Amino acid sequence: MALMARRLVQLYAGLALYGLGIALQVASGLGNDPWDVFHQGLSRRFGLSIGAWIIIIGALVMLAWIPLRQRPGIGTVSNALLVGVFADLFLYLLPDPDATAARWAFLVAGIVAGGFATGCYIGAGLGPGPRDGLMTGLAARGHSVRVVRTSIELAVLAVGWLLGGTVGVGTLLYAVTIGPLAHVFIPLMQVREPVKDTPAPAEEAPAAERTAPEPEPASS
Q1: pTM, to two decimals
Q2: From CA 212, how far away is CA 206, in angstroms rounded?
Q3: Confidence at residue 27, expressed as pLDDT on a 0 to 100 scale
């Protein structure tokens, strides 16, 4: 019970932090990660908020799990529903960073927050996010994870840019740093089952003691 509570707390804290990371990077105006270039482009072209499009696209991506025979967990559904909500909430709460230094601070903090949040929600072990599951599902069909991830992210980046999403130095910085950050934070935040102690075997008496004859009773 305590372990599951730890998993749930870490999952939802990670999703909130992931939404914050998205909001910080978008608010910086220096370039979004590929998926959020896409979400922002959809928002600018068709209306609705970035968070709403995060939820809509997440739901559509989960439909692609069906032919891939991927099974969602509570973390998958929570990710699809809540990351967009948190992104919109923090975009509303964050001030506009007018100064260049503040914009760069937003960008760097957003990328680091996203890397740590990835470690939190994946490390909780309650199911990958919709987009992560799509990549691993395609990779399980015999494709390289690197090739699948790169192909998908280049595709959404290109479409998002054509729709008007912000591409810039932040997009490049995210691309080169998110992998190393996830490599550090996922193992660090992984929730592991406790190791059960096994009773040590009883110590046996030395062979000499086991074979020694019983002493003869003393004669009176």
Answers
A1: 0.85
A2: 10
A3: 97
